[in-house]
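Board notes (copied after class):
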Amino acid sequence: MIKKRLIILLMTLPLICFAENYLIHGGQESSIQYELTQEVTPSGKTKYLKLSFVIPQAFESPTYVQQIEDFRLDFKPRPSKEDRQQDKRGNQIAVLTWNDPLETVHVSMRFTARNQTILKPLISSAPFPPADIPREFRDYLDATEQVQSDHPDLQKKAESLLQGVQTEFDAVQRILTFIVDHVRYVTPPKQYDALYAYQSGKGNCQNYSHLSAALMRHAGIPVRIVNGVTLKEPYTVKTGDGEYTFKMGQGRHSWIEVWFPDLGWVPLDPQQTELFVSNRFVRIEVGLDNNETVNDGSVRWRQVKNATGRPLFREAINTDFINDNVRLSMAKQNYGPNNILLCPAVEAGFQPVIKPPIPLPKTLPDDQLNKMRYTKPFVFGNLDFPQNIDFMFTREPAGRNAEDEYVMKKNFVVETAEYVTTKMTQYAQIVVLKKPVKLRTISLALQKFGGNGQLWAELLKDNAGKPGHVLATSDFLHLNQLSSRPGYRWVDFDFSQENIVLSPGSYWIALGFTGSPIVNWFYTYGKPVGPVYGTRYKGVYDTQWSGALAYEFNYRISGLTTQ
């Protein structure tokens, strides 16, 4: 039996990207006070309004345990009717109905979640292909509109990935290794299904979940889609030469649970590239796909005939960690994807997936750079993020469910951003250029919330995978030059007067500030553009960039390059 060991984080890495499997072990225990509030203001021509909520249940797996206490559902005004029901997947649903509502409806769902993540070695001898799947789990082998496990392209890919595989664990880690390297996180995507994610290489958490489920279900592995909420409380893992911090946006999220005959249901998060879920996840609803997991947060209403108004909807999620205990350690392995894949220790038969190293671009000497003609417009970066969105009011567009009845479903557009103008911390993002560039502007995806002061961008040289000395500094921007409207948008920092020509290679962008600005910098889950070590932070008075982050800030480099 070969011992499978992966982990969770990384610190100082070489200038060539090797395989990025990491082994994590230890645990997290937290008690979390959770509150979801919704406000719906009817249009004035509404016959009835229905809100539905899925009541979270206790759940226990080898790596994640959830207990729910003190559940309360409060509302004002009192609904005309309250129904409790259970669907065929075991979800407990509360449906509240207001007839002829004229005033704003306020609803809050409160509970205490006691969550544990347990990352001790797992032992699995489950064979592949699986045999004798219990009847109650066979629905989770079905193809659906969003999980097209019957599509020839997805079937062919699954079969090519799983040649020679003899254990279920090996099949799961091979599929997730492919997805980690193949799919780039964007939100919102054009479609949410598995085939779109496979063909485009893009998607949000729904796409990651659906594609994982499609490939595994074709291979005979039961997979169910889980909907819930991720919490914004970060956690940091210490390493020998620094620390690595994980953080998610606070909002709705989709992941999967995979059935092993000797382990039961095991939660995995393909979008977060984890063969587990942290205790920053609150599990709420399960189903075959995200077309089925629609009960939590659903808003339905019927209007008088030919009415044109729509209800105004607002939702907020608030959490308070009563206690939080994190005990995690990590170690890097020499196999796996080129991007990060995190996992507890697993003892199971498997064949390590070893990827060749990815060489960095070759640096050019100054005299050669200065002889080149820079005439071709150049734009590069982590460019995809939801611009100008007020995250308090995000919802899927309303659709007609029946004559004069409409439904508005939850969505998965989540605000992922770091408060980057604290007085004690500075943040930096790597940029790897494959072409020579005459730099004009560096743009960052920022939102101003208040305060006063000035911002600027610094361009730094790379020093063995960390920011080095400053090469150039942009002009200063006064905070009053930034828009005060809700939402993130590009803020341009001008470098055109510096006459900077950059050789192919690695550089860093750092945000500087003075005064007391309150500004967030949007980030994307994973590392969609740059290397896994490429997002850093340090204390403003520190000389070493000892902290690393699990995500990638959104940035844009503009200028001219050669033909």
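Comment from the instructor: DSSP finds five helices and 36 strands in the chain. The first helix runs from residue 152 to 161.
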